[in-house]
Amino acid sequence: MEFYPSIERSDIQEIKRFQEHKLRELLVYLENNSPFYQRLFKSNDIRITDIRTLEDLRKIPVTTKNDLQQHNQDFFCIPGDKIVDYSTTSGTLGDPVTFGLSDNDLERLAYNEAISFACAGIRKGDVVQMITTIDKRFMAGLAYFLGLRKMGASVIRMGPGIPELQWDSIFRYRPKYLITVPSFLLKMIDYAEKHGLDYRNSGVYGAVCIGESIKNQDFTDNILAQKIKEKWDIQLFSTYASTEMSTAFTECAYQQGGHHHPELIITEILDDEGNPVQQGESGELTITTLGVEALPLLRFKTGDIVKAHYEPCRCGRNTMRLGPVIGRKQQMIKYKGTTLYPPAMNDILNDFNDISCYQIVIQSNEIGLDEIIIKLSTENRQENFVNEVRDHFRAKLRVSPKIEIVSFDVLSKAVHNPSHRKPITFIDLR
After folding, report:
1. How far apart (Å, rounded) are the C-alpha atoms in residues 249 and 343?
2. How far apart (Å, rounded) are the C-alpha atoms in residues 260 and 290?
3. Residue 386 · residue 373 · CB < 8 Å
4. Over 150-175, what HEC string results?
5. 175-229 pLDDT per residue, tens
6. Distance in angstroms (rounded) separating the CA atoms of residues 195 and 213
7. pTM of the model
8. Which whole-number Å values give the CA distances from 43 to 37, 38, 65, in the listed order?
9. Does residue 254 contact residue 315 with C-beta atoms inside 8 Å?
10. pLDDT tens, position by position, 225-253
11. What secondary structure does DSSP assign to 222-274, as a single string?
């Protein structure tokens, strides 16, 4: 069937040969079209004809998010008049990284989400409520819509937030599935209980959960998933993706990790020295995109620490499965579906002349999710100042952190600790 690719049920060696053929095609494409990779090949004396197998990939240096940020335009392989959509993702150095998509890239994105949603059990004719933004240059929301449309599902584009409107839509259109940040389901349940809504008989069967983990490493439900299911008996499916990958890893009905789609992406799990980890060990997910026209990536380090599972799944797929993200390289933060880095937050806070001192604190809340607290000192007594700062975060990074006003005397002593050579503007309490 169209959304159940046969390659995923092929044997491991056939999948490997298939990917190696796709890899050789990609290398020719990059050498002909990518200024960044043309330079990389030349400066490292790499002849692409020497790269024949997946193991040969190790002869090529990795690509980092810093590379993307510093040489963003050099990654583009097609002219501007072939770009039909612009998306952005946060960068390590503050400014967002731009991703352009061609018409074929949008079609690939739709195919990716269609086979991913089919993996989770969504079928033609199912009604699906999207509790996620589709605007603000956010690739994921567009991908969900395109994928659902491609597979023949009906889409309710509700956008995030406002439990009252979400419930109104659920009772009006009876969606079978929701696509949402899972912690928002707790807010929806809380609203339903306070307002006497019969949410358990709403007809919702399951939710595809984005941006936050709902599983432990052994695939049991984590605290967040347990809290949701204690109240509402629905299926929760994990999905993991990023703008850079343009590819999703989504769970099937057996919920034993997100399935790899070998026609769309090559994966490596690398240790701190850049070597492949042993099976069963965790490492940094490093990806090579297949079939991307505008901005393909070769050996891109995602920064996410994951563990891969290779035994065949009971669903019949033989592809590798990714477990939940274990952690982040350096100080990467996952906050409500967005990947963040402290320098990007520093830049926003430094935009405000009225902020005399600040400290960013990351901690885990009671349900195990990352929480961002911005402590700041200011002489600005206007009551809308905090909202102005929060709005700036929303505009630049698509997040809304908790903001606390602290007296300058107290905060400056914490930031400018005499026993530290540098100001302590970032604290990770996770």
Report:
1. 28
2. 13
3. no
4. HHCCEEEECCCCCHHHHHHHHHHHCC
5. 999 999 888 898 899 999 999 999 999 999 999 999 888 898 899 998 789 889 9
6. 28
7. 0.79
8. 10, 9, 19
9. yes
10. 988 999 999 999 999 999 999 999 999 99
11. -HHHHHHHHH---EEEEEEEETTTTEEEE--TT-SSEEP-TTTEEEEEE-TTS
